[in-house]
Design brief:
By secondary structure, this protein is of the alpha+beta class. The chain contains seven helices and 13 strands. It is globular and about 60 Å long.
Length: 290
């Protein structure tokens, strides 16, 4: 295996959690060692046969400088994810350093190593909806998901009529594909409940279909069938086979995923549901993407 090295790439982003660190972007230094097979490029001397390190570097710069992080660990993980998932690097080493972060030290940083196998366990699909300031709250929820877990992909956004209680505004709905080291109960407590609390989700015990700032649910978890939490909640979520606003965004992300209980693909399930009231929305949520 060959290694492409990108040394001392200097970027600026908002990183940290102390008050003085949140005012303006800080300098960070990134080093990459990308394992690739460059034997064909060495044989042909053709740029088309070589790993395009310029493309991955441009994508990384765009994403990092448009985002904000509390920890260098999270920043390093996002860079590794980009290389492995989006650019199919078989292995990457990422070093991220904050110059001047510690007195009497040149810098403080972290060095991580990732490969595709690190992102194969616990792939989950979340369903997300809002009808209280929906554009604002959907964008906020996506930002928080990027902060608290590893977001792999997002579906298009759809507008749908309310279900169960018609005297309220329409919803914005979408699906998100994530990777996590947590199990479902841990993810519900540490990520979903935290995001819903930050976005002031209020539950009406008299009306489970009442308006909400955000609604986040685990729809699929690997290819497992299970229960989790105190309710308990079901995986796969029952709404997948009942509602187009749940099934269609999921099918956009993974059309060939076979529902582990139904034995049908998400594309087949979505096609069988009434989607006449569903409307795609071309919204700019201000979320940086790879």
């Amino acid at each position: 295996m060959d290694i492409i090295e990108i040394k001392n790439l200097r970027l600026r982003t908002i990183i940290g959690f102390s008050a003085h660190e949140l005012d303006a972007p800080q300098d960070i230094v990134v080093n990459l060692r990308i394992s690739v097979d460059e034997r064909l490029a060495g044989e042909t001397d053709d740029p088309n046969d070589a790993f395009n390190y310029r493309t991955i570097t441009k994508a990384m710069i765009h994403f990092v400088e448009a985002s904000r992080y509390s920890l260098v660990e999270k920043l390093a993980e996002e860079i590794a994810r980009l290389a492995v998932i989006d650019f199919r690097a078989p292995r990457i080493e990422v070093s991220v350093h904050k110059p001047g972060a510690l007195r009497r030290s040149d810098s403080v940083g972290i060095h991580i190593v990732r490969c595709p196998g690190d992102y194969e366990r616990n792939i989950a699909f979340l369903s997300l909806g809002s009808n209280i300031k929906p554009q604002e709250n959907v964008a906020a929820a996506l930002n928080l998901l990027r902060r608290y877990t590893t977001v792999l992909d997002t579906s298009p956004i759809y507008r749908s009529p309310p279900q169960g209680f018609s005297e309220q505004a329409s919803f914005l709905n979408m699906a998100v594909k994530i990777h996590t080291l947590r199990r479902p109960s841990q993810f519900k407590t540490a990520v979903i409940d935290r995001i819903e609390a930050e976005l002031k989700r209020v539950r009406d015990p008299q009306n489970k279909n009442a308006p909400r700032t955000i609604d986040l649910d685990i729809s699929l978890w690997n290819d497992e069938v299970l229960e989790y939490g105190n309710k308990p909640w079901q995986i796969p979520a029952g709404d997948i086979t009942r509602f187009a606003h749940v099934a269609i965004p999921l099918a956009d992300l993974a059309p060939d995923y076979v529902h582990p209980s139904e034995g049908k693909s998400l594309c087949e399930i979505a096609a069988a549901l009434d989607s006449g009231a569903l409307r795609p929305e071309n919204l700019d949520l201000g979320i940086p993407s790879f």
